[in-house]
Amino acid sequence: MTTSLEDLERRATAHRDRPAYGHDALIACDRLVRVFTTDGVEVQALQGLDLLVTEGELMALVGASGSGKSTLMNILAGLDVPTAGAARVAGRDLLAMDAKARLGYRRDVVGFVWQQTARNLLPYLTAVQNVALPMQLGSREPKRKKAERADSLLTLLDVAHCRDRRPHQLSGGEQQRVAIAVALANSPSVLLADEPTGELDSATGEQIFAAFRTANEELGTTIVIVTHDQAVASEVRRTVAIRDGRTSTEVLRRTQVDATTGEEALVTREYAMLDRAGRLQLPAEYTRALNMEHRVALALKPDHIQIHPDTQHPQEPTP
Ligand SMILES: Nc1ncnc2c1ncn2[C@@H]1O[C@H](COP(=O)(O)OP(=O)(O)OP(=O)(O)O)[C@@H](O)[C@H]1O
C-alpha cells in the first residue's frame, strides 16, 4: 500500500493538533534527565523519567534505594535543576525559572515535608510560630487572618494542643503533623513529602498518612509522597514505581461495588509504563519468572500484544 501526499499531510496535521503531552496535568515530567558529576564520574540519577500527576491526586512514589526518588523530589521542590527534559508544575516551567521565580515557586506553589523531623521545623519557634512564618514571608493578608489560618491548620491536623510548644516538646508524630501544617501555610498547589514516616513507628506512621489524607480531602491539595512504607503505598489510589531513574510500573486501586450483594471490594491492577518512545519496562519479577533476558518474542493480536521468552529464537552467536 502506498501513502499519498494527502495522507502524509493529514497525519502531520493530526499530529500538530494533538494536545501537548501532559497539557491537563498539574505535574508533568517529560523525559527528565539528571546527571551528577563527582570527581569526573557521571551518575545518571534520572534517565528520561516521565510522570504525570493530575490536580487533586494523592499518590505515592516507591523504588529501591538509589533509583532516583529524592533527585526527582528535589527537582519538583525547585531545589535542583534537571540536566535535560521538561518539567512543569502548576504552569511553571522548572527549567526556565530565574532565581527570583524559583524563590516564589518554593514559597507559593510547593510545600515540602522531609523525613528528618528536625529539617522541617525551626527549634526556637513554637508550633504556631513555625506555621505562621511562611505566611509572613509570603501572602499580604492581614496579620489576624494569618494567625487564624495557622490555628485552623493545627486544628485540622489534630495538633491544636501543641500550639505553644517548641519542637523538642513534641513527639515525632506531632512534629510531622505540625510540619504538614507549615508546608500547607501558603496554600500550595502541591505538597511533596520525602519519606515522611521514615523515622516513625508504624502506628504513628498511620496517623501521619491520615493527616496527608485530610489535607488532600479537606483542602484539595495535590500530594506526592515518596515512601518505603508498604502500608502508605497500599493506601493510596496510585503508586508509581521508579527503577533506574525511570518510572517503571504503576499500581491503580479502586473500590468496586458488587451489583448483587452491594459489598465493596478493593480492586488492584498493575500497569507497566509505556514511554513516549514506546519503551516498556517489564517488572523484574515477571521477567525472572519466565527467564526472559536480552530479547523477547512479540506478537500483535487484535486487542493485545503477546510477549514470549525467546526460546524459539535462540540468540545470534556473538562475534
Ligand atoms: N548530589 C549528588 N551527587 C552525586 N550523585 C548523586 C547526588 N544525589 C544523588 N546522587 C546519585 O543519584 C542516584 C539516585 O539518588 P537518589 O538519592 O535520588 O535515590 P533515592 O531513590 O532517593 O534513594 P534512597 O531511597 O536511598 O533515598 C544515586 O546513585 C545517588 O548516588
TrEMBL record:
Which InterPro entries does the record cross-reference, listed alphabetically?
Answer: AAA+_ATPase (IPR003593), ABC_transporter-like_ATP-bd (IPR003439), ABC_transporter-like_CS (IPR017871), ABC_transpr_LolD-like (IPR015854), MacB-like_ATP-bd (IPR017911), P-loop_NTPase (IPR027417)
Which Pfam families does this entry report, sorted A to Z?
A: ABC_tran (PF00005)
Domain of life per record: Bacteria
Name the EC number(s).
Answer: 3.6.3.-
Give the first-level EC class, as a single word: hydrolase
One GO cellular component this record assigns the protein to is: plasma membrane
Query: Which keywords does the record carry?
Result: ATP-binding, Hydrolase, Lipoprotein, Nucleotide-binding, Transport
Protein name per its UniProtKB record:
Lipoprotein-releasing system ATP-binding protein LolD
Report the source organism: Streptomyces hundungensis
